[in-house]
Specification:
Two copies of one chain form a homodimer. Helix content of chain A is 56%, strand content 7%. By secondary structure, the first copy, chain A, is mainly α. Chain A has one domain: Winged helix-like DNA-binding domain superfamily/Winged helix DNA-binding domain (Arc Repressor Mutant, subunit A), CATH 1.10.10. The interface between A and B is large, with 43 and 43 residues. The first copy, chain A, binds a DNA duplex through helix 3.
DNA sequence: ATGGCTGTATTATGGCACTGATGCACCTCA
DNA sequence: TGAGGTGCATCAGTGCCATAATACAGCCAT
């Protein structure tokens, strides 16, 4: 009832944000390997039934962060070390911004993270 | 980078949702005791510098869920057993909708809930 | 060189969520 | 009975999001 309305799985969540989350996960997991080319905005748009501009908006922040490089007329490539940099950045942000709140919320609901760790 | 933009602490989060979270927590923690009257929409609005209608929207869902009863011209009261019902409902929703995603996200970031349980 | 692929800038539009101002119906209490 | 407190309905304004239709600039293989 708190975060639920805005989780990554929430269909109401803006498309460009859902795409951004998915792309970040794919980079970290090596689905989009370093040095390799990312799917074109048009291809990814067609795959998701979205607008190419919406996909471009999802790609935008990765460029700003230097995790992805653009070769005009060719495509976008994953920078060397992008996966580890992205993972470190997300981990830091998670521990700083999200975890304390999740922890407090679970405490209020009478839940212990250590117990729930069993669920793989 | 995923949930961060939509956490309860995020200033971009809609006011009525932040209020709703806070009210739910207050009911569960007994800050608003069962049988007692809730702060009026105008009072709570003034306290938070928000619009009375925004507060009313935050109260809305609690009425729909039968956790709060309205006496027209008087005020809104917390129903008997509302705290426990609310806690049970939130816990179920958390485990079903939020925890799996959080768990997967932590796994991707190389984090173990059992280890982080130390942080109180 | 030409066709086909890249990303991107521009402009316009529709939809929707959020917030706000005003006024009304209702109740309680002096 | 009148004053002041409830919740709530109506209408309007604002901004973000997504889409669309073009058009342009660059690269590459044929």
């Amino acid at each position: 009832m708190a975060l639920m309305h805005l989780m990554a799985t929430n269909p109401n969540r803006p498309v460009y944000l859902k795409l951004r989350d998915q792309i970040a996960a794919a980079i970290i997991d090596g689905v989009y390997p370093e040095g390799e080319m990312l799917p074109s905005v048009r291809a990814l748009a067609a795959e998701h039934g979205a607008n190419p501009l919406t996909v471009a908006k999802a790609y935008q922040q990765f460029q700003n962060d230097g995790l992805v490089e653009v070769q005009r007329g060719v495509g976008m490539y994953v920078v060397k070390g992008a996966a580890e940099r992205l993972r470190a950045r997300e981990r830091e942000a998670f521990l700083r911004d999200e975890w304390p709140e999740i922890r407090a919320r679970m405490a209020r609901l009478g839940l212990d993270p250590a117990d729930l760790a069993i669920f793989t």
